[in-house]
Amino acid sequence: MSLTVDDFDYALPPELIAQAPLPTRSASRLLVVGQTLADRHFIDLPEFIRAGDLLVFNDTRVLHARLHGVKESGGAVEVLLERQLGPHEALAMIRASRAPRPGTSLWLADAFKVTVGHRVGEFFLLAFPSDEDLVDLVERHGKLPLPPYIQRAAVDADENRYQTVYARERGSVAAPTAGLHFDQGVLDAVAARGAQCAWLTLHVGAGTFQPVRVHQLSEHKMHREHYLIPPATVEAIAATHASGGRVIAVGTTSMRALESAAQRGELTAGEGETGIFITPGFRFRVVDALITNFHLPRSTLLMLVSAFAGLDTIRRAYAHAIGHGYRFFSYGDAMFLSHENNAV
Q: How many CB atoms lie within 10 A of CB 132?
């Protein structure tokens, strides 16, 4: 089957794009996708978790990755980090009336200078001051970067709600949003069902919001993201499968890391970069079920979930969600999907 980007399009009423989180994390809705569709709430998730299951979480933490400043000419710029490359070097998106020239400087946040290097696709290489850690500098002077479809600036409440309750490893420029629904009560209820938790880190880049600009999927080039999978997580996954339990990825970021690390046939611990592009026909080696939010039309993440649950199943689920007023994208509602198309 030769798929194009048009196969992953759908019409979304703008009012369904969530602009703010609900007062309580676990109050969001949960669409359970199995042989039938069940409308539930996220607080009900533990009912669908079995003893012996393993939930794998991405513990990345969102950086204050948005910085405003000026060019040497005095023109305004907005910088959004894509990912850190070293202690003092990063890739970034730069918004300006004219792109800055390599070798020139940007004065950011009224606090420090960066030097513009060469372009890498849509991004620029930036050299940060060598006398301070890049992450510490950005955390002190930057702003939390909300996704482009949230039509407002970040406020104090986002400092908490656009982070998962278990976020700890600094490095993302976007939240692993499936995890935003979990609060301590849900985590405790999952444990009470006899399930276990494991952790990995994948630092989400700004490229996650980039549209697919080619018609044929085979021509699309994926952005790359850094991940780390500890040996304890690999051991827990092996034990779960050996005992007949399910490995449940909390979010597409956890899934991308796990399936990337298993592409040679066996899941291995360690760190690396992934540019994996998961489309229908992909062979999943690790993940048995997935907790995820609703994704943008024509996006690589919509293609991923279609590969996992089936394109017709996802079309049916999204049509149901739109018809029943579910909230979409980062601060929106969630789905529970099974690779066997039988989530319960």
A: 13
- Run of H or E including 260: helix 252-261
Q: Which domains does the chain have, with CATH numbers?
A: 5-62+158-338 (3.40.1780.10), 66-141 (2.40.10.240)
Q: Which of 129-133, 207-211, 249-253 has the lowest mean pLDDT?
A: 207-211
Strand 334-338 and strand 225-229: the pairing is unpaired
- The Cβ of residue 233 has, within 10 Å, a number of other Cβ atoms equal to 24
Q: Which long-range contacts (CB under 8 A, 24 or more apart) does 181-186 make?
A: 181/25, 181/26, 181/28, 181/30, 181/42, 181/45, 181/291, 181/334, 182/25, 182/26, 182/57, 182/250, 183/24, 183/25, 183/26, 185/26, 185/43, 186/25, 186/26, 186/42, 186/43, 186/45, 186/46
Pure H helices in 77-194: 134-141, 158-161, 184-192
Mean pLDDT of 244-259: 98
Over its C-alpha atoms, the chain yields an Rg (Å, rounded) of: 20
The residue to which tokens 């399910």 are assigned:
246
Work out whether strand 123-127 and strand 334-338 pair parallel, antiparallel, or are unpaired.
unpaired
Give pLDDT tens digits for 282-322.
Answer: 999 999 999 999 999 999 999 999 999 999 999 999 999 99
